[in-house]
Amino acid sequence: MNTLVEYEASKLVDLFAKADNLAMHLFMDNMSMPVDVQDRLISEISALNQIDQQSVGEIIEHHGQSLMSERLRW
């Protein structure tokens, strides 16, 4: 998981803890995420047993545009 995804996941975990749906959508808008993807993310994150940065990051990466890990070993 790259640094940007770690930041996004951390921010979303905080917003879920506050149960602030509007702030979640505004944050994901700033991430340039389409509304339908935002709804899927919120749904999948809500279904987690424990909402933590690693789990949320994996969901973000699953719906992201790039599947290539930024931490490639050379």
Report on this model:
The structure is a single chain. Helix content is 66%, strand content 0%. It has helices at residues 3-18, 21-30, 35-46, 53-63. Mean pLDDT is 84; it is low at 70-74.
Poorly predicted spans: 70-74
Distance between the termini: 17 Å
Please report which band the strand proportion falls in: under 5%, 5-15%, 15-25%, 25-35%, 35-45% or over 45%: under 5%
Please outline the major beta sheet: none
Order of helices and strands: HHHH
Share of helix among residues? Answer: 55-70%
The helix-and-strand class reads: mainly alpha
Give the strand tally. Answer: 0
- Rg on CA atoms, Å: 12 Å
Number of helices: 4
- Specify the overall morphology: globular
Mean pLDDT over the residues = 84
SSE layout:
Blueprint lengths: L2 H16 L2 H10 L4 H12 L6 H11 L11
Helix pairs in contact: 1-2, 1-4, 3-4
List keywords for this structure.
74 residues, single chain, mainly alpha
